[in-house]
Amino acid sequence: MLLRHTTAKEIDRHALTINPAKICQPIGAMYAALGLHGCLPHSHGSQGCCSYHRSTLTRHFKEPVLASTSSFSEGSSVFGGSANLLSAIETIFTVYNPDVIAVHTTCLSETIGDDLHEIVEKAKEEGKVPEGKEVIYCNTPSYKGTHITGYSNQTAAFVKFFSQTTGKKDNTINLVAGWMEPSDINEIKRIAKVMNIKTIVFPDLTNVLDTPLTGTFNMFPKGGTTIPEMKATGDSKCSLGIGPYSTLDACTKLKEKCGVDFETVEIPIGLKATDRFLMTLSKLAGVSIPDSLTEERGRLVDFIADNAKYFWGKRVALFGDPDILIPTVEFLLTLDMKPVYLVTGTPGKHFDEKMVELLKDKVPEAKFKSGEQADMFQLHQWIKQKPVDLLMGNTYGKYIARDENVPFVRLGFPIVDRAGHNFFPKTGYIGSENLAINILRELLDFQDRTCREEKMEFQM
Ligand code: SF4
């Protein structure tokens, strides 16, 4: 009974958030920065922030996440961190020699009001940025927005600092990757390859946080979008933002800067979102969808049909990031499940509008909330008022799952108490099948554990 104080009765509380369904902005900026080849993320703030951001990413991916910090002391907290950042830039290029330093702010440096543009210009004037190297930056105050905002800001900064246009368009499509696992990005790249589409993916976390153990330490893994690729995004024929919350800003900036038209789609989780993703890709690239992908779709449909009786009518509570929740809710509806409670700490009207659109006819009793005051405490209260058959979300949900004795599917970020989430995609038809199999396994395991003895079935 770890959450024994949670009550079913809701009390009006405007000034209190308990267990928010979000984490802090710089974590997103740090994650996105790792998707640029040869880039060292730099946290402009105190050591504690950087340490928390690194350790959260490291625990989720089970990979060492390298980042530097301006290491604020009492003095820099009062007088500003300019001297620390200037010194850090010089040291980082001398000792670690990255191609790019991607600086993001923290609550502290934002409150002080450090001007990153001015500091980086000064570093260049003082010769601290070697020829051919870059220092880019973005603002990520964590008292506003979430890790998704930070990811979006960093991705937009890639465009701001690198994208160029020669005036000559080529046939490439930019795939602007929203916050996904490396395995999900890999699956999207595989689909584009099967469709014979030339793409530039950014940020590209594949071969960065899913690298093999070779016995040799590489400070900068071989993956990530390269700087020439990032520059070339301005000449691409169009962009496709995958997950509007994390990619719309980058797509918009690229349109303004280089005139690259764009569309956005939900992350392709589930049958319908993958259908839309493939059809949009097919339209933008002017290619047809190959039979092999249609066969993958058929297998997913077959799986759903075979197991429909187990999914039907199951009540589900979900929390996490909107770009993951929206297509997942749609997929649960495809499975004839009932997403009844939904919470995301990331603000934005799109989530609320999509929930109304998806749920108003099929699950009119559904409750959902987004933004700062949307927290897991409220989600737990809703579950106490009327129980669910399944909970889906990151590791923080395990306490609710245990207290309420419901099966729990880990989904989203961070997952720090299980392994494998970063190996098996949940995008595309194959990934959606993985997700549906996970859901089914949890439901049936729970049934086997808890049903009356006479109801125990050998074969399901
Ligand atoms: S919320 Fe602010 S102070 Fe806390 S770790 Fe994040 S950036 Fe640092």
From TrEMBL:
**Highest taxon of source:** Bacteria
Question: Which spans are transmembrane here?
Answer: none
| Ranges for domain Nitrogenase/oxidoreductase component | 24-443
Provide the alphabetized UniProt keywords: Nitrogen fixation
Record-linked InterPro entries:
ChlB/BchB/BchZ (IPR050152), Nase/OxRdtase_comp1 (IPR000510), Nase_comp1_CS (IPR000318)
SUPFAM superfamilies given for it?
Answer: Helical backbone' metal receptor (SSF53807)
**Pfam families reported for this sequence:** Oxidored_nitro
Which family is annotated? Answer: Belongs to the NifD/NifK/NifE/NifN family.
| Protein name in UniProt | Nitrogenase molybdenum-iron protein subunit beta
Gene source species: Segatella cerevisiae
